Give the backbone structure.
Amino acid sequence: MAEEYLKAADGNHMTAMALAQAGLTHMFGVVGIPVTGLANACVARGIRFVAFRNEQAAGYAAAAHSYLTSAPSLLLTVSGPGCVHALPALAHCQANVWPLILISGSCDQASAGKGDFQELDQLAATRPFTKFSGRATTIREIPAVVANALASSALGRPGPVYIDLPSDVLHQTVPYGEALELAKLVPPFVPTFQNPSPSPELFASGQAVDEAAALLRHAERPLIVFGKGAAYARAETELQELVKLTGIPFLPTPMGKGLVSDTHPRAATAARSLALAQCDVALVVGARLNWLLHFGEPPKWSPNVKFVLIDIDKSEIDLRKPHQGLVGDALLVLNQLNKAIKDDPFYLGDSHPWIEKLVKKARDNVERMEMQLQKDVVPFNFMTPLRIIRDAIIAEGSPAPVVVSEGANTMDLGRAVLVQTEPRTRLDAGTWGTMGVGLGFCVAAAMAMPERLVVAVEGDSAFGFSGIELETLVRYQLPVVVIVFNNNGVYGGDRRNPEEISGPYKDDPAPTSFVPEAAYHTMMEAFGGKGYLASTPQELKSALTDSFSARKPALINVMLDPYAGTESGRMQHKN
Ligand code: ADP
């Protein structure tokens, strides 16, 4: 290794050694002063550095990579503006309960406060969005700061952390042998799902588990709800076993989709409203009763529903005050629950009134949606291209493609139409409804799950936030097909009533409008990827067949009727 020929290790090498010792594998970012050397040192230590065009997209990639690998990933930025551009990723991780380690270079400690190049109090800037913000003030402090940051990010409720590395620290040196010894102070990170002896606080109390099992056993209309906390814990085998043991119907949150296949006969997704409104006991695993689950309150839920929550974080249980709270890791606690159920088994068969009711409702809803989907509407509405894309994704079989989705109508309708059969194969705007995550998520998914095709279904507005990262897809030759639903703007361009437009700037483009019929596919071609324009079912089918089999970066520009869809998608009441 190159370092063996060095007489001394500088701060860059010390940091890279500490990160490698921790077992961290991927760093996303944008290099520049003072961290270019750090990126190179990480590569020399076997850490993959994935270079982006913009820190915000790099940050979303690091965030999704953390989620998909159940371990913190690294984000590297320059000082000042670079660090500020990383704040959205920290905030996104905080909102979505994902780990992430941001490392930023910062200005020389001796010149701090004097108006140095790209100077900023980065510890203060990152603190509102992090579980831990720490600075190494000397090279010898680097391993301890790395160890503290890693522990804070990964233990308990996962979350984002920040490591501040002043440029003078990066330039300090220690003898190479001493650096090797110092790096050994960092404990290697082992995700819970791979840990043969997990710590006792990750299990729920035996009494709480027995009570939860009894609640489910005696329920008349039980329901299992699971979310991205269960996906992060990799609790899919345990969830599948629970459904198999008990026959209880289940409802995934958007990113929980696939932990148990959407095609499973007990999937209640197509009867969601009925399932929520009428269940009497709801076991909620790794999902918060926030806006996405209507706060667990009427009218969407029955006022008498008894919630049983499994969550890694006791504060979540304290906040929601469920009938029964099981604090612990979803995978481990579900194992405990399955054992308790096996001791006194029960099963809701196909003829159980609750199952019959849900199955009938789901069948009716699916039939109604399928009638809409099967029409070939040209110019395209949302449903026709979504059906064609759904069928192409299903035809891929296993390993199933990862679907990345963002946009208003595109994401809302896509969630109902696109099917997930395998865990962690859906990434979307998440708890915060963050637009602009798409291209970063594509890179993350392709790196974390290299055996899978990645298919991004993006509204044209959402795509625009990070469209330049098409170049990153081409540079790394990733198997990503970006499908842009092009309806000329946010919610479909100018939908204003002409009578409401006045004032000196009335002839400006509408705030919702983009250049009509923009040739997004040629952006991909500009970088050497493959571009397709699709305005008819046949053109779309042929573009999908071609691009899915090529497994190279491609963009399909799907021209939509700009008047299809609605303003704000399904969130109209909030706009
Ligand atoms: P969704 O958006 O899918 O509903 P949320 O992000 O709202 O999911 O909730 C995820 C929940 O999962 C959080 O409350 C978080 O504390 C919890 N969580 C995270 N990791 C684990 C884990 N390993 N085991 C159990 N719960 C977890």
Summary: The mean pLDDT is 96. The first strand starts at residue 8 and ends at 10. The pocket of adenosine-5'-diphosphate is lined by residues 96-97, 157-158, 227-229, 232-233, 253, 255-256, 286-288, 290, 292, 310-313, 316, 329-330, 431 (CB under 6 Å). The longest helix spans residues 353-374.
